[in-house]
Amino acid sequence: MPGTLIHLTEAGRAALVSPDNAGTRSRQVLSIGIANAAFIHSDDLLTLPNEYKRIETIAGINVAPDTIHVTIRDDSADQYPAYGFGLYLDDGTLFGTYVQDAPILEKAASAVFLLAADIRFVSIDTALLTFGDASFANPPASTETQGVIEIATQAETDAGADAVRAVTPKTLATRLRLLAPLASPALTGTPTASTPPAGDDTQRLATTAFVQSAVRDASIGQVVLEPRTSARAGFLKANGSLLNRDDYPQLWAFARASGALVTEAEWQAGAIGCFSGGDDESTFRVPELRGEFLRCWDDGRGADEARVIGTYQDSQNLQHTHTASTTPAGRHGHRAWADAQGWHQHNGRTRIAGRHSHASGISRNVMIYGGGGPADDIGESRRSDIHTSDAGEHDHAIDPDGTHAHNIGVAEVGAHRHDVIVASHGATEARPRNIALLAMIRAY
Predict the structure, then answer these.
(1) Residue in 273, 264, 270 with CA at minimum distance from that of residue 296
(2) 228-249 pLDDT, tens per residue?
(3) 163 alpha carbon, distance to own chain's centre
(4) Which residues are registered as beta bridge partners of 444?
(5) How far, in Å, CA of 19 to CA of 8, rounded?
(6) Is the C-alpha dihedral spanning 379, 381, 384, 386 positive or negative?
(7) Is residue 58 within 8 Å of 29, Cβ to Cβ?
(8) In this structure, are strands 129-130 and 27-35 parallel, antiparallel, or unpaired?
(9) Of 262, 260, 266, 249, nearest to 299 (Cα)?
């Protein structure tokens, strides 16, 4: 600590030596002499040169191993300049002096002389010295000592480089408003704050730890689909794995409150979209979603009746029809017949053929000569038919036999069958167009 350096006298040094010369002893400074003119220090001084008066209203406090804060007070009506001072011990010995060419201060008759100075000793332990009444010592304040301290100006506060002066609430508030305005402060660096407890809904600042905790707690058990091959931080693959409850307490708590916690036997029987209680002691199982399409729970709507949450449902198509064709049987026919109806005739009427006659097919030559007579005997050759007389234009009626039917039979061709072929389509499952994504569940 900087201070006013005190020059010791030989008598002062000797006064600190114990009578048996076995070490040092403590001494008390009882008065301080005031010099009203400059002088030259000498180690053999016994009294203070140019001493104007001695003052006993003094105090001193050790503020460092080599420094004592001294306060001198004179309430008298004396008027004098003070160029230096000397310290007198309890036995009247001049212990040391301080002097400067210009006055330290000048006392007026109506003024109170009050001098406070940090006097520094180079070669002695200041703990050996004590002073009079310290009630008005007013030493400089420090982190260890109560005392007087200078107030920093606004500029000194803004600079922030002074380690001795103190700031006032006003200068500090002004500086803080410049650094971080109360309205929409623009913070820089890495500001920190205390983290509010979980669930806090006040106007306290939300730290990153609070936000991350709130988001994590709110999303525990949430299923996420992403185009990736490994689970992101905080998530596990929804692959039906068996987990330790102590390793994932938040996910286990979610499973117990989800309404979708089943026994291990129920899980293995098809409730793979649920959590299982594992071994009912220390483990539990997450849902198995690999390779599955997700369907929202019916929950009483009736579109997927009697469905239990988290249960597996196999593939199925909507009821429908198919067109079909038979296999070819080769070219073939079927024999048929009509049954007999007994003797009967069919009557009807012929179409009118106009005026005509009918040839008999027998010539007179044949009838007379047996076909061997001369043609000219009768004027006809053997080939001239005998014709009927002309009956005029007429038709012929055929009497009907009445209403009747003929049964048709088809011959039996033996036992046989025709194969019907329905073309096969599709693969090993029913599915729509799709994209494969990784299913993950938030676990911590």
Answers:
(1) 273
(2) 999 999 999 999 999 999 999 9
(3) 45
(4) none
(5) 19
(6) positive
(7) yes
(8) parallel
(9) 260
SS3 69: strand
Q: What angle do CA 264, 266, 268 make, to 5 degrees?
A: 70
Closest CA to 145 of 58, 63, 60: 63
Close Cβ partners of 268 (under 8 Å, ≥ 6 residues apart): none
Q: Which of 27, 60, 57 is nearest to 145 (CA)?
A: 60
Nearest C-alpha neighbor of 18 from the set 8, 10, 26: 26
Token pair of 268, please?
């293995």
Between CA 223 and CA 288 the distance in angstroms is: 11
Look at the chain and count its residues.
444
Strands, E, within 122-254: which ranges? Answer: 129-130, 223-226, 235-237, 242-244
Token code pair at residue 421: 């072929």
Note whether 146 and 166 are within 8 A (CB).
Answer: no
CA geometry: angle at 108 spanning 104 and 110, to 5°? 140
pLDDT (0 to 100) of residue 291: 94
- Residues 6+ positions from 111 with CB-CB distance below 8 Å: none
CA distances 362 to 147, 369, 371, 372, 386, Å, are 178, 12, 10, 14, 6
In the three-class reduction of DSSP (H, G, I as helix; E, B as strand; rest coil), residue 158 is classed as: helix
For residue 129, report the phi and psi dihedrals to the nearest 5 degrees. -105, 140
Listed as own residue / partner, the contacts of 291-299 with beta carbons closer than 8 Å and 24 or more positions apart are 293/431, 293/434
Of 252, 231, 230, 256, whose CA–CA distance to 242 is shortest?
252
Q: Which of these, 77, 4, 10, lies nearest to 45 by C-alpha position?
A: 10
Instruction: Classify burial at 121, counting beta carbons within 10 Å of its beta carbon; exposed 0-12, middle 13-18, buried 19 or more.
Output: buried
Calculate the alpha carbon distances from 44 to 4, 10, 18, 25, 151 in Å.
Answer: 21, 6, 20, 21, 42
Structure-token pair, residue 49: 């040169």
Find tokens 């109170």 and name the residue: 112
Cite the DSSP H helix spans in 258-325: 264-268
Q: pLDDT tens, 315-370?
A: 888 888 877 777 777 776 667 767 766 666 666 666 666 666 666 666 666 666 66
User: 208 and 196 in contact (C-beta within 8 Å)?
Assistant: no
For residue 112, give the 3-state DSSP assignment: coil
pTM of the model: 0.42
Say how far apart CA 274 and CA 254 lie, in whole Å: 12
Q: Mean of the pLDDT values across residues 62-76?
A: 87
Give me the pLDDT at residue 417, please: 72
